[in-house]
Write a structure and sequence with these properties.
The complex is a heterotrimer of chains A (about 350), B (about 500) and C (about 350).
Chain A: H1 12-18, H2 22-44, H3 52-77, H4 85-100, H5 107-131, H6 136-154, E1 160-161, H7 178-183, E2 185-186, E3 189-190, H8 191-209, H9 211-221, H10 223-228, H11 233-259, E4 261-262, H12 270-281, H13 292-311, H14 316-332
Antiparallel strand pairs in A: 1-4, 2-3
Helix pairs in contact in A: 2-13, 3-8, 3-11, 3-12, 3-13, 4-5, 4-6, 4-11, 5-6, 5-11, 8-9, 9-11, 12-13, 12-14
Chain B: E1 3-14, E2 17-28, E3 32-36, H1 43-51, E4 58-63, E5 66-67, H2 73-79, E6 81-84, H3 96-100, E7 107-108, E8 111-112, H4 114-127, H5 144-157, E9 162-166, H6 174-189, E10 193-197, H7 201-207, E11 210-215, E12 218-225, H8 230-238, E13 256-265, E14 269-277, E15 281-286, H9 292-300, E16 307-312, E17 315-316, H10 321-326, E18 329-332, H11 336-339, H12 347-352, H13 366-379, H14 396-410, E19 414-418, H15 426-441, E20 445-449, H16 453-459, E21 462-467, E22 470-476, H17 482-489, H18 497-500
Parallel strand pairs in B: 3-10, 3-11, 6-9, 9-10, 15-20, 15-21, 18-19, 19-20
Antiparallel strand pairs in B: 1-2, 1-4, 4-5, 7-8, 11-12, 13-14, 13-16, 16-17, 21-22
Helix pairs in contact in B: 4-5, 13-14
Chain C: H1 2-22, E1 50-56, H2 62-76, E2 81-87, H3 91-103, E3 108-111, H4 116-128, E4 133-136, E5 148-152, H5 154-169, E6 173-179, H6 185-201, E7 207-214, H7 219-232, E8 238-241, H8 244-256, E9 264-269, H9 272-280, E10 284-289, H10 294-307, E11 322-325, E12 328-331, H11 335-338
Parallel strand pairs in C: 1-2, 1-3, 3-4, 4-5, 5-11, 6-7, 6-8, 8-9, 9-10
Antiparallel strand pairs in C: 10-12
Helix pairs in contact in C: 2-10, 3-4, 5-6, 7-8
The chains are: A mainly alpha (about 350), B alpha/beta (about 500), C alpha/beta (about 350).
Chain lengths: ~350, ~500, ~350
Amino acid sequence: MTTPAQTSEPGRGAAFAGRVKALELQEYALAIVVVLLFVVGAILKPDTFPTVDNVRNMLTQASVVGVLAIGMTFVIATAGIDLSVGSIVAAAGVFGGILVGDNGTSTLLFIAGAVGFALLLGTVNATAIAYGRVVPFIATLAMFSIARGLALLLNDQLPVSLLDLNGGSFGNPRVFSLLWFGNGRVFGIPASVYVFIAIAIAGWIVLNRTRYGRYVVAVGGNREAARIAGVPVRRIIFSVYVLSGLLAGVATVLLCARLGSASPVSGNLYELDAIGAVVIGGTSLAGGRATIVGTFLGVLTFALIFSLMTQLNLSTEVQQVTKGLIVLGAVLLQRPEARY
Amino acid sequence: MTKVLEVRNLVKEFPGVKALQGVDLDVHAAEVHCLLGPNGAGKSTLIKCVSGAVEPTSGEILFLGEPLPHGDPAGSLKRGVATIYQELDLVPDLSVAESIFLAHEPRRWPLLDLDKMYRESSALLARLGHDSIPVRAKVGRLRPAAQQIVSIARALSGNVRLLIMDEPSAILDEAEISTLFDVVRRLTGEGVGVVYISHRLDEIRRIGDRVTVLADGRTTASGLPATTPTDQLVEFMVGRKVDQLYPDRPVGTDRVLLEVRDVKRLPAVRGVSLQVHAGEVVGLGGLVGSGRTELLHLIYGLDHPEEGEVMVEGKPLRSTPRHAISQGLGLAPEDRKSQALLLDWSTTKNVTITDLNRFSRVLLDVRKERERAREQLRALNTVPDDPDRVVRLLSGGNQQKVVLARWLLHECRVLLLDEPTRGVDIATKAEIYRIIADLAKSGFGVLVVSSELEELVHICTRILVMREGEIVAEVDGSDATERELLRHAVAPTDAPVLAEEVV
Amino acid sequence: MSRKRLLGSIAALSLLAIGVAACGGTKTVTKTVTVNGNAAAGGGSTGKTVSIIASVPPTDHGWLGAISKDAKAAAAQHPDVKFELLQAADSDSQAQQIEQAIAKKPDALVVLPQDGAALTPVAQKAERAGIPVINIDRLFTAPDAATATVLGDNYQIGVLAANYIADQLKCTGNVVEIQGLAGISVTTDRSKGFADTLKKKCPGGGIKIVAQQPGDFNPDKGLTVMENILQAQKKIDAVYTHDDDMAQGVVQAIRNANRADEMFLTGVGGSSDAMKQIKEGGLYRATFLYNPNMAGTAVNMARLIALGQGFGELVPPEVPRQVVVPAAVVTKANVDKYEKYAFN
């Protein structure tokens, strides 16, 4: 029979804990994990892991899920969840591919189509959740199925080749053509990495330095109090799912660029990776506390794990167990209050 | 006279904080011993040591002459020490009987003996004079007052000799408090010793036999008679003379700020009209369930009225909080922890949330935000005024100041306050009364809902009494007495409040 | 406010409705019996109609799509067959679907299980209820789970691939293996056949399998896995993949890294994309035919079993317990011959 702490116990010890440092501690811990993983990789595979080329490779691989994870951070900050992003990635890609057509070469059309379609699907989620009062888990679970179905339906279960969207030259895609987003580099850094980092920075700014970001976290932290304080709760909830859909569209552009095609079976379980990255980064599933830096580090963590384990040629079973243990470890590093 | 509890020189240190620095307390059997003291004085810590929830650093705790096992709540409970916390620790989905016997259910091993459980629960409730509470009802559906009785019955089920009650009247209205006092007297009649913690001095006088005052982790006065005058008690608490608990009563002007016309939303509010003028403090008194909170919510736009209008300076309000806020209304809700504050946020963020426009064109000027918030908090004498302090760690009184700071920052014109001094210590209460009076003086209109009639009587220009969804009386502040307000508030048939509204 | 709610509710309801229909829904096809059907090989029409229910896994792959098409096409050839095709959403719902199918008491069940081990119990149940089960491709793990089995020879595919690669590399070089979905018999057999044959063919250990990772039959997984392997391995001579569709991702990774000249690649399945690339020549050199037509074979066998007939060539005419469909090597040299069997 203990009461929750109601009265303050003033004193210097409490003051440190009292300052809003919980999140930052979590971020430091994850940064340590990232460095540790890198060091382990450098020791185990000194010729191939700590190379510029491999770092480029890992960052590129991180970009697709990374973009999804940024959107997921906003959704989870409102105490919601979006299980449909992986399926939306597939559906949007196929839609964009069909729009461009068999002999089309317009990158702009593909991007507009893919992002637009993803935005549409995100908006359906948003409407059902914010206005239809459907629980986010259920609504996005339904979309998870629907979008996957659409991806298979739109082109009769076939992938759409996008190899022609290279600005005219095979093997050396023109800048800003679709394939350039997959392989093109600017100052040695792949284009998709720029996109990911730009979105991460934008995400940080919006979350931490705008009214909107403050409202998003308020809605997740205490919906009733937010409402009473004048936050437009319903609109905020609507917006985060639209945002998630939009970013899924961006992610599919990056994925299709590298794949050279839009595959209806792509994006499989990407949402779990995104959610995982967000959670180990320190954003609370219960809402009210979110960190973009944490998500970024979480995405890097997963990319490092994947790269290292593949390079070490570990079997699937070992990979799955190891990944699970690392995630568990990262979560346990969180402070007790932050664990839920 | 048997000493049920003796506490000698109790010391408790937490890392960085000395919560108790040598506390003495004596409680006799069959007495109601009140424990008084400002927040942070150590009352909670003292109780937790006695109940075993916390292990003391040094000192003695003797129960019926025997030392109490340290840090062993189950052991203390078994010996006969029961504690009823302010946030009743009941599980809403369990039935009354299950709650009473939780963790020591009667068994016909290996199954529960349900019949015995129901029988004995009824018996316990009867001992408390409340056998009308149905033992099979789910606790979550009972009124807070009835839930409290269930907690007490739970304490009784363990053969309690010492009952500690932490601010039990905080969730009750006048009538329920009287009922509670009857129960307490029954218990003392059976020889139980009761430790009763409260901020309300009037209650101490009504129910207490003796008083001990704590301040800063020490006993400043021990075993005083409950008839000790208020000034002395307050002086023992705060260490200095508090000249006046209540400031000068504000006098209103003619300018109408808020007008409520025939607002109705069944079943809680059946048609209410009122006005709040600039410069006045209007009180809303009444029993729990009379519809006061619901009325505030209707005015603020949290709920939609079925009929009627609300106008601020002549302009009608659309029924949304955002519109109300934009027209100058502010609401400090009844449960500040769950309805007003974001507990994991800093004080700054809680203060500025309503008015972020002020600090941002595109991006938020975080520095400016902190400055203004700190200014506001300082103006209200918030302790600590650290703009980054997590609000969860502030005392009740200071949390309330954060809420008020929010509305002052926003520069609203009419403040709606719902139980503004609930869970707030004496010294901070005085400050809040002063803040309210100053606001009125500077042209605000204030509408205050409170269950503490004494408070209303002292700080309001006018007092409206609500009963069953309607305003049944209006009394001028300077003429009002508690008795008169209570008379208007209580239904003429005077049936026991608890039984009626249990399910 | 109420209009918003209405709009929201409609969106929510339609979402849920479509979701319920799409998620775990069954796609059923019933062919009507035409009077003038052609009597296909393997037994003439006896005037009796047999009902056959086929259960296949979620069609997240071109090959599986082809299976469904071939099964339907085969059934359409027979006027005396009433055919229903069930497509599952996942392993669990496939088991449920089969249970429901058993309740309908068909004359035969044709099953391609998502996971052979997981669906063995329900297949046994069907057999015990007197419904003959014909198992395609992914094997059940108990002999009494099926009356007859039609499978591709996955082990033989591994053998053919190893022979081909060993010949091309003259028994020296680094090989990377991109496997299918870990844990199913198809994958295990293809790997084992490959490894065993390499050992036999190149006893000196000249060919090394330097990396072996699952690509889950998925192109984007194939892409990312190969990207990482390319980082780890500085010299790769050949890539053995378990699947043509998945290989598209692998191919892209190699091209993106500008290492297409360093190695060559083989696939499995005979997709038209693969055949096209083999025809063009270059990175994609061979694929091993693993014909989805085996579904047609299975349906035909199911019909015979249901009618109580058998293969005329056998003495006495019966339906063999196991039919193994041979694999073929498709390279630039003979791709023209096999193009018509390609699946999309």
